[in-house]
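Board notes (copied after class):
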Amino acid sequence: MTHEHDFTLVYLRNSEADVEVELTVNHGQAEPYSHGSGYGHLAVAVDNIDDEYVRFKSLGFEPTDVKEFHRDGSLMAKFFFVQDPNGYKIEVLQNHGRYR
């Protein structure tokens, strides 16, 4: 479990399959989550985030800028987001550390 400012991340991994679910607990959430606010996004890990970013742009998907998330001075995650036609966010992560 990782505590970071105003949210806590909880990771659930099945040892028999290479699948992980990340749950986000938003501190100070006053209202119950609804379907619209309770769902976060789908994430996939790729071997080369920079190549995928260029590929997504070339396909007209309009990805957000590549961002890096650091903790204690070390890179924890490098990622960008893209939206599907229904507006759902998809996170594309660099295969790094715990993200694989």
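Comment from the instructor: The chain has a mean pLDDT of 82. The first strand starts at residue 2 and ends at 4.
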